[in-house]
Amino acid sequence: MIDPRLDVIGKRLEPVGRIIPVSSAKGGVGKSVCAALLALSFAQRGYRTGLLDLDFQGASAHLLLDVRLDFPEEESGIKPLRAGNLDFMSFVAFSREHAVPLRGSEVSQAMLELLAITIWDPLDILLIDMPPGIGDEIFDVLRYLRHPEFLVVTTPSRLVLHVVERLLAMLSELKVPMVGVIENMVRSGTDSQAAQLAETYGTTLLGSVPFEEGIDDLLAAAARGNPLPETLADGIRSITARIAPAAR
Amino acid sequence: MHEWALADAVISTVERLYEENGRKRVLSVQVLIGELQRIEMEVFSMGLQNLLSERPFSYDVFHFETEKASFRCNACGSEWLLEEHAGLGEEELEAIHFLPEAAHVYMRCPACGSPDFVLERGRGVTIKSIDLSDD
Questions:
Q1: pTM of the entire predicted model
Q2: What are the DSSP calls for chain A, one per residue?
Q3: What ipTM does the predicted assembly reach?
Q4: Which of A36, A115, A200, B90 is the least crowded, having the fewest Cβ atoms under 10 Å away?
Q5: Residue A248: inside a domain, yes or no?
Q6: Could you tell me which CATH number the domain at B3-132 has?
């Protein structure tokens, strides 16, 4: 048996410039929030931006970006949904708000299918909201996507930093390109160890995202065109500028 | 119309194998169509025919075989066929058509109600075999 989807994924992603999986070894650190903030910020700066939610079992990026869940339109494949001026794709377009009880091999199958049938318009940046942990999705992204540049999210928590270090160590061991580390949920006066950790594994701390009460609602409002609080907007703008300095 | 994306994938695989094997003539391609994905064969065939223009092999080499979808429950060991599974609505079938793993969202083991089952066969589009000429 030959799986023909493997031969078409490269072609599907040809119109996509940079692919940035936003990941963390630990859950609850704000990967989806960071991915959504980055997507909005890149789009605001004129980059053609897409967001692919590969956290099938914990999909939430659609809630943060206030995406209307219709079945995707078909046109020699399926077209991404639109979230403001972002392109967006997620399993949730098909599962709605139901539980997604998949085992690892089924996650891989679903991911292959989405990659094989989604027809992306030309994009400068495709952010991928990854599930927590070091499992199937990370290995599949490494196996099937060309030149992914991992962005790792941590918080100042000692426990989170310890777990995130394992992911950084593995990515470093595998010589996977890393765009950098973001420290999320930072409160003023925090003594950060994230910069040192990033440097240990040959990458850099891109910046910090301040802890913000009600971030979910603020993001959904921002996706509808409302401004983010200034400190949050400044933090994320400086991070996107470090990832892709030349605005289009 | 997302059948066209799958037709495109099949052609890409045949083309790769054709190139990798010294451009030997493609004699036949056996395509297995799993029942779960509910591929519209007319649309899939039309996709193949359209995408095959200027390719070194023609539509005539493609042969199709359908495979029934069958499931086995990890919890109770029960086995069943898709055709025996009642209660799926049009929207749910449409979701499974786009993404067969959505079956795990909308189906449960008919015997014990568990969502922990495996699709044993009949998922979607695969290539069973490709025959290339010896000369």
A1: 0.95
A2: -B-GGGGTHHHHTTTEEEEEEEE-SSTTS-HHHHHHHHHHHHHHTT--EEEEE--STT--HHHHTT---PPPPBSSSBPPEEETTEEEEETHHHHTTS-----HHHHHHHHHHHHHHB-PPPEEEEEEEPPSSSSHHHHHHHHHSSSB-EEEEE-S-HHHHHHHHHHHHHHHHTT--EEEEEEEEEPTT----HHHHHHHTT--EEEEEE--TTHHHHHHHHHTTPPPPHHHHHHHHHHHHHHS-S--
A3: 0.95
A4: B90
A5: no
A6: 3.30.2320.80
